[in-house]
VOC domain-containing protein
Amino acid sequence: MWVPVEDMDRARAFYRDTLGLTEQKTTEDWSEFDANGLMIGLNARESAQPTDGGAVITFQPEGGIEAEVEELKGKGVEFTGGISDHPWGRIAPFKDSEGNDLQFYAPPS
């Protein structure tokens, strides 16, 4: 899964420092991060125009979803709809530093 970025340094800082993901590889135009086994690529070669209805990167936080949301809010991340409950699990949508759609997911308990 890859997402377009306008500013690679800003995006790398968000994924590394704000989300706490492990950076695997980086070049001027491409960086890879490991999100619990999901590889997220940051692509500076494509125009980063946020779109409605595009791909959403979903991953499970290591801790509880509430704790992860509160921690990221403390780092200035804006959650667009809070945590919502569904029969298939819970989600908490937010955007990265480049306007790409991300969300945390927790399976039903």
